[in-house]
Amino acid sequence: MNTPKITALLSIAQLAIELHNAKNTAKSAQHDYHEKLDAFERDVRTLPHERVDKLDPNNADFIDFTMMEYHARRKARCVAYNIKRWLDTACRKSHSL
User: Fold this and answer.
1) Please, what's the b/e burial string for 56-70 (b: 16 or more CB within 10 A of its CB; e: otherwise)?
2) How many other CB atoms sit within 10 Å of the CB of residue 83?
3) What's this model's pTM, rounded to 2 decimal places?
4) Mean pLDDT, consecutive 10-residue segments, the chain of 97 residues?
Protein backbone atom coordinates (compact mmCIF):
# COMPACT_ATOMS: atom_id res chain seq x y z
CA MET A 1 0.00 0.00 0.00
CA ASN A 2 1.22 3.44 -0.82
CA THR A 3 1.30 6.42 1.52
CA PRO A 4 -1.64 8.36 -0.02
CA LYS A 5 -3.88 5.31 0.32
CA ILE A 6 -2.90 4.80 3.97
CA THR A 7 -3.53 8.50 4.65
CA ALA A 8 -6.94 8.27 2.96
CA LEU A 9 -7.85 5.19 5.02
CA LEU A 10 -6.86 6.95 8.23
CA SER A 11 -8.98 9.97 7.35
CA ILE A 12 -11.89 7.66 6.55
CA ALA A 13 -11.50 5.96 9.93
CA GLN A 14 -11.43 9.34 11.66
CA LEU A 15 -14.58 10.46 9.81
CA ALA A 16 -16.30 7.19 10.71
CA ILE A 17 -15.57 7.81 14.40
CA GLU A 18 -16.80 11.40 14.10
CA LEU A 19 -19.97 10.17 12.38
CA HIS A 20 -20.60 7.67 15.17
CA ASN A 21 -20.19 10.42 17.79
CA ALA A 22 -22.40 12.83 15.80
CA LYS A 23 -25.15 10.22 15.49
CA ASN A 24 -25.02 9.61 19.24
CA THR A 25 -25.27 13.36 19.83
CA ALA A 26 -28.25 13.56 17.47
CA LYS A 27 -29.97 10.67 19.28
CA SER A 28 -29.37 12.39 22.61
CA ALA A 29 -30.77 15.67 21.25
CA GLN A 30 -33.80 13.81 19.90
CA HIS A 31 -34.35 12.23 23.32
CA ASP A 32 -34.04 15.64 25.05
CA TYR A 33 -36.57 17.10 22.61
CA HIS A 34 -39.05 14.31 23.28
CA GLU A 35 -38.54 14.74 27.03
CA LYS A 36 -39.32 18.43 26.64
CA LEU A 37 -42.47 17.60 24.63
CA ASP A 38 -43.57 15.21 27.37
CA ALA A 39 -42.89 17.85 30.02
CA PHE A 40 -44.93 20.40 28.07
CA GLU A 41 -47.83 18.00 27.76
CA ARG A 42 -47.61 17.07 31.44
CA ASP A 43 -47.20 20.62 32.82
CA VAL A 44 -48.91 22.98 30.40
CA ARG A 45 -51.42 21.45 28.00
CA THR A 46 -51.88 18.73 25.44
CA LEU A 47 -49.79 18.86 22.31
CA PRO A 48 -51.37 20.05 19.08
CA HIS A 49 -52.08 17.10 16.79
CA GLU A 50 -51.58 19.02 13.56
CA ARG A 51 -48.45 20.79 12.38
CA VAL A 52 -47.60 23.73 14.61
CA ASP A 53 -47.99 27.12 12.95
CA LYS A 54 -45.27 29.42 14.27
CA LEU A 55 -47.34 32.51 13.54
CA ASP A 56 -50.38 31.34 15.50
CA PRO A 57 -50.39 33.11 18.88
CA ASN A 58 -52.05 30.07 20.47
CA ASN A 59 -48.84 28.10 19.89
CA ALA A 60 -46.46 30.70 21.33
CA ASP A 61 -46.19 28.92 24.69
CA PHE A 62 -45.42 25.61 22.98
CA ILE A 63 -42.75 27.15 20.75
CA ASP A 64 -41.11 29.04 23.63
CA PHE A 65 -41.12 25.91 25.81
CA THR A 66 -39.43 23.64 23.23
CA MET A 67 -37.40 26.04 21.08
CA MET A 68 -33.92 25.37 22.50
CA GLU A 69 -34.26 21.59 22.29
CA TYR A 70 -35.76 21.80 18.80
CA HIS A 71 -32.86 23.86 17.47
CA ALA A 72 -30.27 21.65 19.21
CA ARG A 73 -31.91 18.62 17.59
CA ARG A 74 -31.87 20.21 14.13
CA LYS A 75 -28.24 21.29 14.47
CA ALA A 76 -27.14 17.83 15.65
CA ARG A 77 -28.91 16.17 12.74
CA CYS A 78 -27.33 18.59 10.25
CA VAL A 79 -23.86 17.96 11.67
CA ALA A 80 -24.35 14.19 11.41
CA TYR A 81 -25.61 14.53 7.84
CA ASN A 82 -22.63 16.69 6.83
CA ILE A 83 -20.13 14.25 8.33
CA LYS A 84 -21.86 11.42 6.47
CA ARG A 85 -21.46 13.34 3.21
CA TRP A 86 -17.79 13.96 3.94
CA LEU A 87 -17.30 10.27 4.70
CA ASP A 88 -19.04 9.27 1.47
CA THR A 89 -16.83 11.66 -0.50
CA ALA A 90 -13.67 10.40 1.19
CA CYS A 91 -14.62 6.78 0.44
CA ARG A 92 -15.36 7.61 -3.17
CA LYS A 93 -12.04 9.44 -3.60
CA SER A 94 -10.06 6.65 -1.92
CA HIS A 95 -11.14 4.20 -4.62
CA SER A 96 -9.30 6.24 -7.25
CA LEU A 97 -5.96 6.09 -5.38
Assistant:
1) eeeeeebeebbeebb
2) 19
3) 0.83
4) 89 97 97 93 82 84 91 97 96 88
